[in-house]
Amino acid sequence: MEITPGAHHFPGCLPVDRQIALVAQCRALVDGAIPAYVPVVRGGGQMHVRMLCLGRHWNGKTYQYEPTRTDFDGLPVPPLPAEFRSLAHDIAASAGMALEADLCILNYYDAEGRMGMHQDKDESARSLAAGVPVVSVSLGDTARFLFGGTRRRDPVQTLRLESGDAFVFGGPARLRYHGVSRIVPGTAPPALELVGRFNLTFRQYDVT
Ligand code: SIN
Ligand code: MN
Predict the structure, then answer these.
(1) Please, are residues 50 and 104 in contact by the beta-carbon 8 Å criterion?
(2) For 16-36, what is each residue's pLDDT tens digit?
(3) Ligand 1 pocket test target in 26, 106, 115, 122 with most atoms within 8 Å of CB
(4) How far is CA 100 from the centre of its chain?
(5) Each residue of 120-133: b (16+ CB within 10 Å) or e?
(6) Shortest-distance ligand to the CA of residue 139
């Protein structure tokens, strides 16, 4: 369903068995050898998510991408799994858009998790100018997702992103403000045995 030009919500995009497999992969990644962590951003505040970047590391101090986590532990960013890349490609295609993701930001939200309104604008100027989309996949507890305009003061729509939903914003919607005001605890499908929410946002830093 098109929310606004370039922004598409696909409720129930992923069947439960696919969600179970993705949750297992997310759990293994966030608690793996190169684990997720709570970023401290430019102003010195902690984010309200646990974050793990794949493919390219987003540095919360510089708002730039880099190959190693110089704002945290200096470890190399883990690779983007091939099946993540193809999942993002297929979801973008169903919105009529092309995406060859080279990075993913995997966030875990507990019951207190949230994310302030922001634009995703740290990818390359060419990628942003081309409107290459961000593909977001939600797993676990429902999120109250806020989707605004390209200016901070623009009106904001509220959407519920449920487990298995995909949300795509590209083209004229690529630089719209968005955020997560809250998580609705206990709403994850029981089969996932997940407390909280994983969100994966796939992006393409570079265009060739
Ligand atoms: C983000 O904006 O990076 C995350 C959005 C979400 O968790 O749905
Ligand atoms: Mn974002």
Answers:
(1) no
(2) 999 999 999 999 999 999 999
(3) 115
(4) 15
(5) bebbeeebbebebb
(6) 1
